[in-house]
Amino acid sequence: MFATRLLRIRSVRASLIPLIATLAALSPEPAEADEPLARVIADGRPWEMFVVKRRASNILVFRPDGGGTISDSLASIHPTWRAAPDGICITPKPGDAERCLDLARTKDGIAASQNGRMVWVLKR
Fold this sequence. Notes:
The chain is of the alpha+beta class and 124 residues long. The protein contains three helices and nine strands, in the order H-H-H-E-E-E-E-E-E-E-E-E. It has helices spanning 2-26, 31-34, 37-41, and strands at 47-51, 56-62, 68-71, 76-77, 80-84, 87-91, 99-105, 110-114, 117-123. A nine-stranded antiparallel β-sheet has the order 4-3-2-1-9-8-7-6-5.
């Protein structure tokens, strides 16, 4: 009886494999592929942020609600952000000017640039 049940379980598993493979092949690309990079960044998880001009690393956490934190070993700021057509717009603190950056995927992570100059790179 145990052997019969084991064969039945293996048979069910074996028939599910082609079904799962077919569904995976027919399913659309993952949501992140078409999702704006600003929303990919703003998943509430920490990113290592390398600031090119200062050659410094920070920790960036943007939340889906438009808030976040950028911190180094000494201080933290709590900027707000919004998605832009090709990137992200960030206001470091209330009263500061909004700064919009273009975002692009790179082999190392996600790069932010302004006027063709790289400002920072995010990595996980």
